[in-house]
């Protein structure tokens, strides 16, 4: 029995060491200072706005595949047409990361991208057309995971500097560990989440469980689109050639616009 226990303990130690080595790039990370990171990130923040009056700001956070033309161009155009100051944050532009490893979870967990949001807020705050007292975060997949982490205590240090979002929109987020919102949900920012029933990349059930646990303290609307897959709103993408679902996409666009218009009107600056 003693030898068996020693053998088992040895196996557990070995597995622990292997896990630490495998996740070394997400466990042992030196967080940069916000002022330094703002300078580094600025060339990788893209904006679009129409009109000459200050507008609420919408930050778009891409998935683990990185910044794609459909997000940087098409979505910037869409959100600016809706009357917002649209901002696309390229989280990989200022980092030496491998999208494949990010998608596998061995590099750049989404919580490490909170500093990108805070830095982008600092960057656009210098633009007189950006009303940063009213801002929303719209995330896609890995970016939606990052958006959900604004509900956790991980956002505390940044909230004291840049405030809390007026609204969060999460397209098919990852809701399990190591998403820190799953263990530490402490804000009541209104949330809209758009999920695909048949999502084969980020599971729907953990998200529904997370939202239900926090529905008493936070206004949460979630929509599960029947027959929809991960990336149901993305047309002509190299990642998922057959995932686009026009009905779900059109419905989601309507949901997002109504949601943001409602939340921004409630927080309108005088």
Task: Supply database-style keywords.
alpha/beta, Rossmann fold, single chain, seven-stranded mixed β-sheet, 7 strands, globular, 270 residues
Task: Give your account of this protein's structure.
With 270 residues, this protein is of the alpha/beta class. Helix content is 40%, strand content 16%. The chain has one domain (35-266): Alpha/Beta hydrolase fold, catalytic domain (Rossmann fold). It is built from ten helices and seven strands. It has a seven-stranded mixed β-sheet, sandwiched between helices. Strand 6 (191-196), helix 9 and strand 7 form a beta-alpha-beta unit. The longest helix is centred in the N-terminal third of the chain and has 21 residues, at 2-22. The N and C termini lie far apart (74 Å). 40% of the residues are buried.
Topology:
Layout: H1 2-22, H2 24-27, H3 34-41, E1 45-48, E2 55-61, H4 69-81, E3 85-89, H5 99-104, H6 114-124, E4 130-140, H7 142-148, H8 156-162, E5 167-171, E6 191-196, H9 204-213, E7 220-225, H10 246-266
Parallel strand pairs: 2-3, 2-4, 4-5, 5-6, 6-7
Antiparallel strand pairs: 1-3
Helix pairs in contact: 3-6, 6-8
